[in-house]
Amino acid sequence: MLMKPLLNVLLAGLVWTGTAFAQSEQWLEYHTGLEAPTCHLLKVTTNAPPGVALPALNGRPYFARWITPMDPAGGRWLCLDRTRKNGPYDRLFIDSRGDGRLDDKPPVLASLQSILASFPPTPVVFKGEDGPVTDHLLFRFYSYDTMQVAPGQPAIPPELLVYAAGWYEGRVNFDGVKKRVQLFDGNVNGTFNDMGLSPAESDRIQIEGDKTGERFLGRMVEVDGKLFQIEVARDGAYVKVRKAENVTLGRVSVPENISEVATFGENGYFVRQPVKGELTLPAGKYRVVTWMINRKDEKGVPWTLTASDSAPSAGFTVAADQPAVLDIGEPIRSELTAAESADRQVTFSLKFTGRQQEAIQMLRDGQTPAGPKLVLANADGTQCYTNSFEFG
């Protein structure tokens, strides 16, 4: 930040009393770091963007555009270049000020490791309500130019990942109890108040003492078992919270062997441990994010089965007068696929899916169990080949 961090520091801890959101800004401080928790894949091209002034470049550059609603033009262009004509892509030019130029800023230099070029947190500046607002992005570029591929196979295209390297945090008053809050740009678009229809479109919040860890941002948050309404500033500089009152709850039914369910919707992200197959949620629309089954085998060893990434069609509505029934849990389906390459190499893969096409992970005593074995044999059984799958 150029101006707002100083303002945040001066106002950190200031809590306006009152019940209306307009009277309850609680200011947070801006931080940057290398351990960026969220990332987004950018599309790269060799075509130069029209109307963008370019610096002197070496070799064949790549271009990409980072999309952000913080910029009136809708995004910022960047360019990946080489220090040496035939060397690795170790220079990054970015339109950090939104002036449509890449030729008036020094390049950001990368640290290199094999096919990966890692760029340090890079500032981008926007025009905010109270002056300039600075965010930081971290870029990682994977170039496979030096990798050999099998005859007849296409070259592996490069990949560019952008990470949100800046976040906000500070102590927030929740009905008389102060908790440290962290806000993360979950969808890496430069704003901190996105509440999308899916977790991937939403930003994230973490509250001190919450065993769940990060939650996807919604209209409500749970703190010590209490529901609070929350409003987050677009640039993340402050939050407003007040205790949620007169919240309508509805019942949700799940199979009785379900140990835990995490749901996300317009009201927020909620984690529940059902009791005899039932739980309650604030009325509204949701989708299942994860569910879990815990049990022990005949030797008393604990196993955990976790499902995630359910299909978008796995949504449900919670209402006070009609219990919602979730079609989750067992049985689990195993899917074996085989793919033959141009050089007649056959690759087998095995995965487990749930009723809603969820990806399934299994742990034995907290560890990944040994993978199943694949046995191939001729029709008459004269030749046999055995291999073991590895989970991951």
| Beta-strand residue fraction | over 45%
Low-confidence runs: 1-23
Strand count: 33
CA radius of gyration:
25 Å
**How would the global form be characterised?**
flat
Assign the structural class, choosing from mainly alpha, mainly beta, alpha/beta, alpha+beta, or little secondary structure.
mainly beta
Question: Taking all residues together, what is the mean pLDDT?
Answer: 87
Distance from N terminus to C terminus (CA atoms, Å) equals 40 Å
How helical, in percent, are the residues?
under 10%
Number of helices: 1
The profile of the biggest β sheet is:
6 strands, antiparallel
Q: Which key phrases capture this entry?
A:
392 residues, mainly beta
Task: Itemize the secondary structure elements and their pairings.
Elements: H1 4-11, E1 26-27, E2 29-32, E3 39-42, E4 44-45, E5 62-67, E6 75-82, E7 89-94, E8 108-109, E9 111-113, E10 116-118, E11 122-128, E12 131-142, E13 159-164, E14 166-174, E15 177-184, E16 204-207, E17 215-216, E18 220-223, E19 226-232, E20 238-243, E21 249-253, E22 260-265, E23 268-272, E24 278-282, E25 284-296, E26 302-308, E27 315-318, E28 324-325, E29 333-340, E30 346-353, E31 359-364, E32 373-377, E33 384-388
Parallel strand pairs: 21-28
Antiparallel strand pairs: 1-20, 2-14, 3-13, 4-5, 5-6, 6-7, 7-8, 9-10, 10-12, 11-12, 12-13, 14-15, 15-16, 16-17, 18-19, 19-20, 21-24, 22-23, 22-25, 25-26, 25-27, 26-31, 29-30, 32-33
